[in-house]
Design goal:
Layout: H1 2-22, H2 40-57, H3 68-73, H4 79-99, H5 124-149
Length: 152
């Protein structure tokens, strides 16, 4: 389980970094069109905050204090700044997962699940799977926004 989670998170976070890199310019990361409510930059900040909180702070005891409102209100960071945040998060996630012992994946996650479809106490493995699905969901949105930005 441990090695699988490390591989999947490393891959997803590398893909996030690649997507941000491929945006044509800083401004395109923050474009909002039609009914889309969050830009690629906003989604990137949300993913960084989410992973730093639920993996870094809760499992890795990093001391990270999440400011979720800022994930959705901060604007116009440069591509380089977003990449720095993603790379820092990648390091924290990798280190935290690497420091878990195999049996801890079956232990209860220290907080109740924030998932509306499965509230309550879940295992660390369940929570890590849930967070990975969330990461990949938003990664797909960011990929789509990037491809659309090349058409504008």
């Amino acid at each position: 389980m441990k090695n699988t989670m490390i591989i999947l998170y490393d891959r997803a976070l590398q893909n996030l970094s690649n997507e941000i890199t491929l945006f044509p310019n800083d401004e395109s990361l923050w474009v909002i069109k039609a009914d889309v409510t969050n830009s690629a930059g906003t989604l990137c900040l949300h993913l960084v905050g989410n992973l730093n909180h639920f993996i870094g702070a809760v499992l890795g005891k990093t001391g990270y204090i999440r400011q979720r409102d800022l994930e959705f209100s901060t604007r116009n960071l440069s591509k380089e700044e977003l990449l720095r945040l993603v790379n820092e998060t990648h390091s924290i996630v990798h280190t935290t997962l690497n420091n878990l012992i195999e049996s801890e994946f079956l232990s209860d996650y220290p907080l109740e699940s924030p998932s509306a479809s499965n509230p309550g106490i879940v295992s660390n493995a369940f929570m890590l799977s849930h967070l990975l699905a969330h990461l990949n969901y938003h990664l797909g949105q960011i990929n789509y926004y990037r491809r659309l930005s090349s058409l504008m």
